[in-house]
């Protein structure tokens, strides 16, 4: 049996760092080894939210499977989507292309049972949403400050950090400051010294104030990622 691997991660940061991706690769590798099978490269990696149905890499993977007579292999069903409509449409697309499909966490399933899996995945997503809402309500009742980063899951912190970084990149004032900061930092200047240089040159923060070391550090780290 020959397989073509498809992976999906939710953010560019996860794609670059390997967060979430390495676990998927391990699951796929172990599955292929346990079957004494072969993976036909290249693997296809999608960096996209599970809520977005536009998956160019997935379409490429299906075409690759059809061309080479391989089976589409993913680590977990939820790496495709938790949306029943999306998975049912994918089921039809796979059948039309005469491409088989296997998820490592449910190897007994295939294109014929994908519809049932789709309904189960969407139900699970809805249950997660309900549990999240209930948990937030209970936390609020206990007086927990929901905006406290210490109360967030690792995934939530990653998403928040990615959102902050995107906003920083789109801010013209921050971008201009970064272009000044980067060469000085690469020369070994401290954040405090760079802040002094920024202030001397007349740079201002987004709120019109002078720079301090901590602000320089944040800009440098966020835009360097």
Q: Which short descriptors sum up this protein?
A:
225 residues, alpha/beta, Rossmann fold, 5-stranded parallel sheet, 5 strands
Give the N-to-C terminal Cα separation: 40 Å
Instruction: Give the CATH class of the largest domain.
Output: Alpha Beta
Number of domains: 2
Helix and strand element order: EHHEEHEHEHHHHH
What name goes with the CATH superfamily of the largest domain?
A: Resolvase, N-terminal catalytic domain
User: β content, as a range?
Assistant: 5-15%
Number of strands: 5
What's the average pLDDT? 77
Question: Which overall shape is indicated by the principal axes computed on the Cα atoms?
Answer: elongated
Query: What structural class do the secondary elements suggest?
Result: alpha/beta
Q: Report on the biggest sheet.
A: 5 strands, parallel
CATH architecture identity of the largest domain: 3-Layer(aba) Sandwich
Helices and strands in order:
Blueprint: E1 2-9, H1 12-17, H2 21-35, E2 38-39, E3 44-47, H3 56-68, E4 71-74, H4 84-96, E5 101-103, H5 114-141, H6 154-170, H7 172-186, H8 191-200, H9 213-224
Parallel strand pairs: 1-2, 1-3, 1-4, 4-5
């Amino acid at each position: 049996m020959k397989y073509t691997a498809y992976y999906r991660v939710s953010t560019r940061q996860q794609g670059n760092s390997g967060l979430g991706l390495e676990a998927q690769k391990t699951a796929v590798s172990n599955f292929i080894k346990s079957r004494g099978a072969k993976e036909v490269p290249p693997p296809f990696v999608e960096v996209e939210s599970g809520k977005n149905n536009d998956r160019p890499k997935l379409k490429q993977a299906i075409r690759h499977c059809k061309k080479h007579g391989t089976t589409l292999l993913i680590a977990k069903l939820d790496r495709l989507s938790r949306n029943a409509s999306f998975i049912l449409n994918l089921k039809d697309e796979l059948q039309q292309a005469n491409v088989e499909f296997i998820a490592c966490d449910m190897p007994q399933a295939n294109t014929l049972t994908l519809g049932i899996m789709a309904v189960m995945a969407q139900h699970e997503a809805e249950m997660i949403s309900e549990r999240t809402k209930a948990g937030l309500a209970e936390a609020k009742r206990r007086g927990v400050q929901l905006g406290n980063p210490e109360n967030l899951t690792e995934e939530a912190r990653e998403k928040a950090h990615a959102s902050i970084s995107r906003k920083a990149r789109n801010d013209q004032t921050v971008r201009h400051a970064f272009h000044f900061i980067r060469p000085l930092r690469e020369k070994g200047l401290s954040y405090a010294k760079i802040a002094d240089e920024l202030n001397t040159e007349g740079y201002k923060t987004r709120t019109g104030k002078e720079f301090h070391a901590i602000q320089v550090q944040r800009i440098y780290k966020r835009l360097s990622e």
